């Protein structure tokens, strides 16, 4: 319909008058204001690898009941969260602690952070710098043989960290984005190490992206001729376009929509985020709101897809599920390989 679209109060917003503001904000009152679900994909954004999506989401054949029970939270599993001083690292520690998983009081950080003590959930965690990593990791792994490392560090550390984990043979969950993704996969594949690697740990969003991939694969060209408007809002510190938006757009492109990634509307101004997008003020510093609006060539038909996230709990909870999934695979002596969040979803044992 010709009136469908986002309120245009400035050049930042999409060109259509008023309904899109309601689409983002009125439903925000029901969902985003309560920390609604959503956010990016399990895809390897920026790389060439793209996990295959299958229609079956049933539990795998090796999901034995005893193995499931053996990795319930609190049953021998320990995690070492690297990047514990960051917001995601702290969120993961809180989620893991709530789930009863043992937190090793050691972590990796930058050279400037070496020797610092980080207090999370009443636990004092010592941060070690780059020069101590191998010695510390080997010692922790020897003391905690069921150790799983969780990595929420920085993009520039991705490849070196993965090489270290693979060298020592420690299973790990990698939530950090960036780095050389092809090299990352090659390193872990060659070492035949257990790992869950995903730039997106939000379980529900991964399921949404999987559904989008299935639709694109099964019905290519279904939206041929349709126009697409995309708006995403993140905290001001995020300068680049969201990997979520890029993943969803790639699906729409496969569905026949012509769209240039440079057209994504990036909302980074806190005032606009609160007043026009509908982001709760307390989550301006940590949120991910996405809106995709499709319009038919004659403007008589429109579709909207929206997913909003407040805070980081959705990613932290998904990370803990990935840890439990990986611990189960290890105890089952399953194939030593790279898994992703689709594998975690397919297992069907999430809390």
From TrEMBL:
<dbReference type="GO" id="GO:0009570">
    <property type="term" value="C:chloroplast stroma"/>
</dbReference>
<keyword id="KW-0028">Amino-acid biosynthesis</keyword>
<dbReference type="Pfam" id="PF01113">
    <property type="entry name" value="DapB_N"/>
</dbReference>
<keyword id="KW-0809">Transit peptide</keyword>
<dbReference type="GO" id="GO:0019877">
    <property type="term" value="P:diaminopimelate biosynthetic process"/>
</dbReference>
<keyword id="KW-0520">NAD</keyword>
<comment type="similarity">
    <text>Belongs to the DapB family.</text>
</comment>
<dbReference type="InterPro" id="IPR036291">
    <property type="entry name" value="NAD(P)-bd_dom_sf"/>
</dbReference>
<dbReference type="GO" id="GO:0009089">
    <property type="term" value="P:lysine biosynthetic process via diaminopimelate"/>
</dbReference>
<dbReference type="GO" id="GO:0070402">
    <property type="term" value="F:NADPH binding"/>
</dbReference>
<dbReference type="InterPro" id="IPR011859">
    <property type="entry name" value="Dihydrodipicolinate_Rdtase_pln"/>
</dbReference>
<feature type="domain" description="Dihydrodipicolinate reductase C-terminal">
    <location>
        <begin position="205"/>
        <end position="345"/>
    </location>
</feature>
<keyword id="KW-0521">NADP</keyword>
<keyword id="KW-0220">Diaminopimelate biosynthesis</keyword>
<comment type="pathway">
    <text>Amino-acid biosynthesis; L-lysine biosynthesis via DAP pathway; (S)-tetrahydrodipicolinate from L-aspartate: step 4/4.</text>
</comment>
<dbReference type="Pfam" id="PF05173">
    <property type="entry name" value="DapB_C"/>
</dbReference>
<keyword id="KW-0457">Lysine biosynthesis</keyword>
<protein>
    <recommendedName>
        <fullName>4-hydroxy-tetrahydrodipicolinate reductase</fullName>
        <ecNumber>1.17.1.8</ecNumber>
    </recommendedName>
</protein>
<feature type="domain" description="Dihydrodipicolinate reductase N-terminal">
    <location>
        <begin position="77"/>
        <end position="200"/>
    </location>
</feature>
<dbReference type="InterPro" id="IPR000846">
    <property type="entry name" value="DapB_N"/>
</dbReference>
<keyword id="KW-0150">Chloroplast</keyword>
<keyword id="KW-0934">Plastid</keyword>
<comment type="function">
    <text>Catalyzes the conversion of 4-hydroxy-tetrahydrodipicolinate (HTPA) to tetrahydrodipicolinate.</text>
</comment>
<dbReference type="InterPro" id="IPR022663">
    <property type="entry name" value="DapB_C"/>
</dbReference>
<keyword id="KW-0560">Oxidoreductase</keyword>
<dbReference type="GO" id="GO:0008839">
    <property type="term" value="F:4-hydroxy-tetrahydrodipicolinate reductase"/>
</dbReference>
<dbReference type="InterPro" id="IPR023940">
    <property type="entry name" value="DHDPR_bac"/>
</dbReference>
